[in-house]
Structure formats: C-alpha cells, structure tokens
Amino acid sequence: MGCAVHTTLPAGVGYTTLELKVNYIRAARTDGQTLIAEGTVLHAGRRTATAEGKVLDEQGKLIAHATTTCMILRTDG
C-alpha cells in the first residue's frame, strides 16, 4: 500500500504511515506457493493519502486485506 502511495508522489516527496489496519482471513501455505499482493490508492491529497491492499493465493483466494493512511512529507510546507 505504501508503494502504491509512493507512485503518486513527485521526486523528493516522502511519506510515512499514520494508520494501518490488517485483517487476516486465512493462513498462507508455506510450501513455496506464490502469493500476489495488490495495492490501490483511494485518495492522494496534499497532506494525506489512503490506500487499500489485499493478498491473494495462486487460486485467487483472499489471504488478507488492509487499509492505510499515510502522511505526505513535503519540504515546501
């Protein structure tokens, strides 16, 4: 989710997590199965950004989903 937020920022602008909420739905197998993570920006403002994410297994079953709020760190005030 942080990486999704990062893609909306110009060079030299940083961010940090203000809030993070994760819901674990089922256990992920540990036998080498590939997991797929997706992050989507919901809001990208001047001071804050929000995003959601999910983790799926190879069969498309939901493993976990989450939301975050990030604070945008600008040096120009």
Report on this model:
This protein is mainly beta and 77 residues long. The protein has one domain: Roll (Thiol Ester Dehydrase, Chain A). Helix content is 6%, strand content 53%. The chain contains 1 helix and 4 strands. The protein has one helix spanning 2-6; strands at 14-24, 36-44, 48-56, 62-73. A 4-stranded antiparallel beta sheet has the order 1-4-3-2. The longest helix is centred in the first third of the chain and has 5 residues, at 2-6. The protein is elongated, with a radius of gyration of 15 Å. Pfam families: 4HBT.
Looking at this protein, list some descriptive labels.
77 residues; Thiol Ester Dehydrase, Chain A; 4-stranded antiparallel sheet; 1 helix; 4 strands; Thioesterase domain-containing protein
Task: Describe the SSE topology.
Elements: H1 2-6, E1 14-24, E2 36-44, E3 48-56, E4 62-73
Antiparallel strand pairs: 1-4, 2-3, 3-4
Summarize the structure.
It comes from Streptomyces violaceusniger. Helices cover 6% and strands 53% of the residues. The protein has 77 residues and is mostly beta strands.
CATH-scheme architecture: Roll
Mean pLDDT: 95
- CATH homologous superfamily designation: Hotdog Thioesterase
Number of strands: 4
What structural category characterises the helix and strand content? mainly beta
Shape type: elongated
Residue windows where pLDDT falls under 50 for at least 5 positions: none
Spatial ordering of strands, largest sheet: 1-4-3-2
**CATH level 3 topology:** Thiol Ester Dehydrase, Chain A
